[in-house]
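Give me structure tokens for this 343-residue protein.
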Amino acid sequence: MDLKQRFQHAYPGAFFMKNEVRAVASYLQGQGWLNQNEELVSLEKPGAGNMNFVLRAITNQRSFILKQARPWVEKFPQIDAPVERVAVEAKFFQSLEKIEAINQFAPSCLGFDAANFILVTEDLGKGADYSFLYQKDNLLTETDIDGLTQYLSALHQVAIPSDFPSNLAMRKLNHEHIFNFPYLEENGLNLDEVQEGLKAAAIPYKTDAALKAKIKACGAIYLAQGNHLLHGDFYPGSWLKGTDGLKVIDPEFGFVGPAEFDLSILFAHLLMAEQPSEVHKAIYKKYQQPAGFNEALFSQFVGIEILRRLIGIAQLPLSLDLSTKKKLMEQAAQWIIEEKMAI
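Here you go.
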């Protein structure tokens, strides 16, 4: 069964979006999403999507982004994923539209078709995401630091809409790959295919009962209801360097949870990207912690994100040698066990 058949078997009658101008043009017209005298000219992939199928639609008047959620992870079709994630993303963007401190960093939501799991957003241009940070000698600028901290600080103060989805199915998917899968001694992932020697380096963390107990406890906090609106996946792949500055995209993992989680993802990835300590200190100083911010939990989440990225399935384009990864893993485990990291 190919992917189209798999989709249509799960959702008979739903539109399966492909890079086919005629079919997409007909769909857009049916939705009333084209202006008067507007015609779809071409379609292109705006980048490598991880979770969803994404196209840039180019018309004779403008361009915009089409995103469809399928019942799998686009990059890993063997992994099932809830299609409701696109509704979470739509609600997330809609919730931020009138918040001046945030909306400058987010694309506008132009339309949402719940029946076909398709979201239409503003096209932010052909800028690249911030994955370049993982390569040596690429640093965050002061403007980037200001934008990231302004975004997170404001997001974590947002009045949460009463109808914001729990996004529990997506959290359970993420929970599996953050807090469980990387620590299974036999999970089918050959880490030596990622980097020779990584499999042996991971064994101490897969067999440390005390460490795994701490990780499990943090996982329960992640799944519980929290007090702040979170992006849920605040790493360089979700930041876009557009023509008019930093933008934050892809909040399909968004949920109401602990503010410590978003900030920890940011810190963990800057550590793996070998950003200088001055960058971490500036971010920690400029981020406006909400009341009750738990530094111990933050430290643990940082460590957990580092470990899961280094020994789990969601690998990054890192330029780190094995020795550096080993040191990072040792630090990460220490932060999880001791619940404290130095900044």
